[in-house]
Design brief:
By secondary structure, the chain is of the alpha+beta class. The chain is built from five helices and three strands; from the N terminus they run βααββααα. β2 and β3 form a beta hairpin. The two termini are 30 Å apart. The relative contact order is 0.11.
């Protein structure tokens, strides 16, 4: 569940906030008069980008039912090499 805090609180507690986000895999919405931002673990962000790229790959979703686990891993590694 995403928690919401003010930019002022985030600034005052930045070190603790970073530790909590990393260790507890938390997500925070930080609000200010200028708008909002989201802080989340980098791994979560990277995974979201991979998911978005996969979902935007033409024809991928139509073929998911026809792919076994080995083929899926091969497809993924082709798109996202280590």
């Amino acid at each position: 569940m995403m928690q919401t805090i003010s930019a002022e609180v985030a600034k005052e507690q930045l070190g603790k906030l970073i530790e909590t986000i990393i260790s507890e895999r938390q997500h925070y919405r930080i609000t200010s008069s200028e708008g909002e931002v989201v802080m989340l673990p980098a791994e979560t962000y990277d995974n979201l980008l991979v998911t978005l790229e996969l979902l935007s790959t033409p024809g991928l979703m139509e073929n998911v039912g026809d792919v076994n686990e080995h083929d899926f891993e091969e497809i993924i590694s082709g798109h996202f090499p280590n």
